[in-house]
């Protein structure tokens, strides 16, 4: 295998690497577009569903804004703006964080939990339709292995 380098030392992608990269991008876009479209049909965005589902898994359906932002890979300000929109729809409420005077807690409301309970079956069916049912058990295991490699701390090669 040859490694093409420019004068600046850039390791350009080999043809098979570029095909794999582009395939990965197409898969992400296709799956995400399908599930986002299906969630939109029931009145939720992907971030809405992520916030609702992760809050539902927390004790008392409550999380700090910081922990929630970290879990979603968002900045606190981005989540704060999104939470404001969800709060206006009655899906969650904010409360002062007794452990951090500058922070707040996000609390799933009864309406938010009901919305999640109503949306979950359709979302699971969407995930099956656009992802799970199209793959073999071996494919799913390979994706899990790839996830472990890509989310582990980088090692020197």
UniProtKB/TrEMBL annotation:
Give the top-rank taxon of the lineage listed in the UniProt record for this protein: Bacteria
Q: Where is the HTH marR-type domain?
A: 17-152
Molecular function in Gene Ontology:
DNA-binding transcription factor activity
- Biased region (Polar residues) positions are 55-66
Name the record gives this protein: MarR family transcriptional regulator
Region of interest: Disordered:
55-95
Q: Where is the composition biased (Basic and acidic residues)?
A: 84-95
| InterPro entries on file | HTH_MarR-typ, MarR/SlyA-like, WH-like_DNA-bd_sf, WH_DNA-bd_sf
Task: Extract one GO BP annotation from the record.
Answer: response to stress
């Amino acid at each position: 295998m040859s490694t093409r380098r420019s004068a600046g030392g850039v390791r350009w992608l080999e043809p098979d690497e570029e095909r794999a990269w582009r395939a990965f991008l197409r898969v992400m876009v296709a799956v995400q577009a399908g599930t986002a479209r299906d969630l939109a049909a029931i009145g939720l965005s992907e971030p809405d569903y992520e916030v609702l589902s992760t809050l539902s898994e927390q004790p008392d359906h409550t999380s700090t804004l910081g922990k929630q932002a970290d879990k979603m890979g968002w900045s606190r300000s981005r989540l704060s703006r999104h939470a404001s929109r969800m709060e206006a729809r009655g899906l969650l409420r904010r409360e002062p964080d007794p452990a951090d005077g500058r922070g707040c807690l996000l609390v799933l409301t009864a309406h938010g939990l009901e919305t999640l309970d109503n949306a979950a079956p359709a979302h699971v069916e969407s995930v099956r339709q656009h992802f799970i049912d199209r793959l073999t058990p071996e494919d799913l295991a390979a994706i899990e292995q790839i996830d472990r490699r890509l989310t582990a701390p980088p090692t020197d090669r």
